[in-house]
């Protein structure tokens, strides 16, 4: 597999190397040893989540406060998604900047999202399914939600129709409001004790 750091520090694009024959295709989606060897990340999955969405559903931008923090290994397992990560780490050289990746089941492409970086996606097909392999279990009250239409972020959702949002996402705070409230995590540019870049 190819593992390449994106323009957001600590965020990686993972592209599998498929093996095809008359039966179909096989590929390795995630290997913790390869993440550690290529990126210095010790990723220990604690929970696996799936989200199924109708076309034009927009979910995010979501993160988790540190502690407990939560890194995510994100893969589209059915359909096509426009995946966006936003650097929410105070002091990061790319604070407030984003990265867009198209994820689709056919390619098996994945994104590793480090702790403190926000994540969201737009479903480009009906019945799109995303898989989150995450480094911590769900802890109520630790979620950080940023409005996906925050004008200062100006995220390129490019939705062909009216997006479907939850009330929670539609009413989420802006990045400036989250910064003023002191809920965002600092950027230190180095691995934390578990080895996950923050």
TrEMBL record:
Gene3D superfamilies tied to this protein: Jelly Rolls
Record-annotated active site: 62 (proton acceptor), 132 (proton donor)
Cellular component aspect of the GO annotation: cytosol
Single biological process term from Gene Ontology: dTDP-rhamnose biosynthetic process
Isomerase keyword on record: yes
Organism name: Streptomyces chromofuscus
Source species taxonomy: Bacteria, Bacillati, Actinomycetota, Actinomycetes, Kitasatosporales
Any GO MF annotation of the entry: dTDP-4-dehydrorhamnose 3,5-epimerase activity
Domain of life according to the entry: Bacteria
Keywords noted in UniProt: Isomerase
Keyword Isomerase: yes
Protein name: dTDP-4-dehydrorhamnose 3,5-epimerase family protein
Entry's family note: Belongs to the dTDP-4-dehydrorhamnose 3,5-epimerase family.
Positions bearing the site annotation: Participates in a stacking interaction with the thymidine ring of dTDP-4-oxo-6-deoxyglucose: 138
InterPro entries linked: RmlC-like, RmlC-like_jellyroll, RmlC_Cupin_sf
